[in-house]
Amino acid sequence: MAAVRTPAERTLNRLAIVSVLLVTLIFLAPIYWITATAFKPRNLATTVPPTVMFEPEVSPFVKLFLRRSQLRAAPSEEEYAAAPWWEQMVFDGGEKVVRSGTGEVRWSAYPDRFMNSLIIAISSTVLAVGMGTLTAYGFSRFKVAGEQDWLFFILSTRMLPPVVVAIPMFLMYRVFGLTDTHVGLIILYTAFNLSFSVWLMKGFIDEIPREYEEAALVDGYTRLQAFFKVVLPEAATGIAATAVFCFIIAWNEYAFALIMTNRRAQTAPPFIPSQIGSGLPDWTVIAAGTVLFLLPVAIFTFLLRNHLLRGMSFGAIRK
Amino acid sequence: MTTDVITRLDPQSHAAKRGLSDLSIRNLFIIPTILFLIVFNIFPLLYSLYYSFTDFRASTNAAANFVGLQNYRELLNDPFIWNNFVITAKYVIVSVAGQVIVGFGVALLLNRDIPYKGLITTLLLLPMMLSMAVVGLFWKLLYDPSFGIINYALGLGTFEWLANPDMALYAVAITDIWMWSPFVMLLSLAGLSAVPKHLYEAAAIDRAGSLYTFFRITLPLVAPILMIAIIFRTMEAFKTFDLAYILTSQPTTEVLSIRLYKMAFQEWQTGRSCALAYIMLIVVVAITNIYVKYLNKVKER
């Protein structure tokens, strides 16, 4: 904008700064609140009025990973003293750690679902970005009859409502035994992200000067060697940004996961809300699970900050 | 457009003779992706097109009977389905309008001399990167009538957000606005920063009022990119499922995707749900078409 000149403009700018700060605080408040809840003692999570000031503790995160059951009788003093710190935290919450017959601590379902999310998101990202990069290079460097139509076709597959695609996919998966399997979700997420990856990568590869490859070809490289040794290194930033986007999309996906999985391959997004169930939910543990799940995305958002515009507009708008 | 600038390697040159030909590389790179998308997106759609003309129920072993257009006819004559359309339309209008107002407004504020602009922008963009399902979950905590922070912060007592049939849809829309205004803001910021500065300087010399400058310079120049944001958000809002499904189970928030989900996976009316899916699909493809037209327009500038 034009430099600030008159006193009136200066006041206006100060007003804008204050408003921006206010808006930022309002936008971040929900995220702060869920994070705060994840560090609250259980009895302070759902007080009326809400508790704003409290002494943070990590017990919700400990409980998140342990299978627990209601304590019928308080533990004896020796039992309590002999228990490790994390077990004492569970005792403090009026619960006990569930152990197997051989006395081993039983984990909750959370780490399993978290791992499912990781496996499925990473595998589908690798596939989508790998295939997407090749296809983007093909469209960027070679003449393809009806190129715009093909690109539109690829984009249109991404625009289908998930529930619409899920119905026939569900029927097909049932036939092939792919419901509630990792492979099933990986295929779905790859298909879902592939079009995105093609569009984004095409933008990145279009920006790499063709002279680089042509120089390599003159130097005796084959087209394939030129692609792997010249184009791919040049496109590394773009590939990384595309991969992070695909990871986030797969990590966050809910509808397919809800329909296609129920236990073995269930990812975190359908699992975390299902914990509410009936009765009084322990919001501190749910919040802990939520925060842990959102954390990777928050970190990635900061890493991606210069590519967000491009990614969110399918590579159409660049700075 | 890229096709125009392509200079092809001379097929007679030495480089072209080494290794795989350009043609086979192109096919090798492109065809697997196209095949993959056809097998996992287009084929299932053809499969469900077939079922949309039958009375198939996935919960039974009975064979599917061909019923012609009956599913479509019944759906389009069903006042409840029309009600789902109305709910969806209401949701789209409220949430997209909210996102445009908040998003464009914040972008205008940010388009000034703001310290730490980069950091603030990134922080503001955080909500749209999060999982809608998990966002829906924790907004349930925020909306709670007794221990929710929203009622406490706004002094609303025990106001019902999600359990109130008249309010629930707006509550979902508010959460959606919180999540996706940043998207409109991001695109608007790109549009605003592309407005040539000399236009503002010229307007200042002509002593144009700030309202005049806004409506005659800023808005027309940002409009195409803002339009992209609006079409994109309209499409997404039309498809919405996660937020509304997690936040409430009110009949007044039953948008089309939720109706479709229930019809397909709870009532197991597979044939009928395939028909409804097709009706939705036609609307989405129409919006996508408009979207791509605008994208190309903006790219050409």
From TrEMBL, chain A:
<dbReference type="GO" id="GO:0055085">
    <property type="term" value="P:transmembrane transport"/>
</dbReference>
<keyword id="KW-1003">Cell membrane</keyword>
<keyword id="KW-0812">Transmembrane</keyword>
<keyword id="KW-0813">Transport</keyword>
<dbReference type="InterPro" id="IPR000515">
    <property type="entry name" value="MetI-like"/>
</dbReference>
<dbReference type="InterPro" id="IPR035906">
    <property type="entry name" value="MetI-like_sf"/>
</dbReference>
<comment type="similarity">
    <text>Belongs to the binding-protein-dependent transport system permease family.</text>
</comment>
<feature type="transmembrane region" description="Helical">
    <location>
        <begin position="12"/>
        <end position="34"/>
    </location>
</feature>
<dbReference type="GO" id="GO:0005886">
    <property type="term" value="C:plasma membrane"/>
</dbReference>
<feature type="transmembrane region" description="Helical">
    <location>
        <begin position="118"/>
        <end position="139"/>
    </location>
</feature>
<feature type="transmembrane region" description="Helical">
    <location>
        <begin position="283"/>
        <end position="304"/>
    </location>
</feature>
<feature type="transmembrane region" description="Helical">
    <location>
        <begin position="183"/>
        <end position="205"/>
    </location>
</feature>
<feature type="transmembrane region" description="Helical">
    <location>
        <begin position="151"/>
        <end position="171"/>
    </location>
</feature>
<protein>
    <submittedName>
        <fullName>ABC transporter permease subunit</fullName>
    </submittedName>
</protein>
<feature type="transmembrane region" description="Helical">
    <location>
        <begin position="226"/>
        <end position="251"/>
    </location>
</feature>
<dbReference type="Pfam" id="PF00528">
    <property type="entry name" value="BPD_transp_1"/>
</dbReference>
<keyword id="KW-1133">Transmembrane helix</keyword>
<keyword id="KW-0472">Membrane</keyword>
<feature type="domain" description="ABC transmembrane type-1">
    <location>
        <begin position="114"/>
        <end position="304"/>
    </location>
</feature>
<dbReference type="InterPro" id="IPR050901">
    <property type="entry name" value="BP-dep_ABC_trans_perm"/>
</dbReference>
From TrEMBL, chain B:
<keyword id="KW-0472">Membrane</keyword>
<feature type="domain" description="ABC transmembrane type-1">
    <location>
        <begin position="85"/>
        <end position="291"/>
    </location>
</feature>
<feature type="transmembrane region" description="Helical">
    <location>
        <begin position="213"/>
        <end position="232"/>
    </location>
</feature>
<dbReference type="InterPro" id="IPR000515">
    <property type="entry name" value="MetI-like"/>
</dbReference>
<feature type="transmembrane region" description="Helical">
    <location>
        <begin position="91"/>
        <end position="110"/>
    </location>
</feature>
<keyword id="KW-1133">Transmembrane helix</keyword>
<feature type="transmembrane region" description="Helical">
    <location>
        <begin position="28"/>
        <end position="50"/>
    </location>
</feature>
<dbReference type="InterPro" id="IPR035906">
    <property type="entry name" value="MetI-like_sf"/>
</dbReference>
<dbReference type="GO" id="GO:0055085">
    <property type="term" value="P:transmembrane transport"/>
</dbReference>
<keyword id="KW-0812">Transmembrane</keyword>
<keyword id="KW-0813">Transport</keyword>
<comment type="similarity">
    <text>Belongs to the binding-protein-dependent transport system permease family.</text>
</comment>
<protein>
    <submittedName>
        <fullName>ABC transporter permease subunit</fullName>
    </submittedName>
</protein>
<keyword id="KW-1003">Cell membrane</keyword>
<feature type="transmembrane region" description="Helical">
    <location>
        <begin position="122"/>
        <end position="142"/>
    </location>
</feature>
<dbReference type="GO" id="GO:0005886">
    <property type="term" value="C:plasma membrane"/>
</dbReference>
<feature type="transmembrane region" description="Helical">
    <location>
        <begin position="275"/>
        <end position="292"/>
    </location>
</feature>
<feature type="transmembrane region" description="Helical">
    <location>
        <begin position="167"/>
        <end position="192"/>
    </location>
</feature>
<dbReference type="Pfam" id="PF00528">
    <property type="entry name" value="BPD_transp_1"/>
</dbReference>
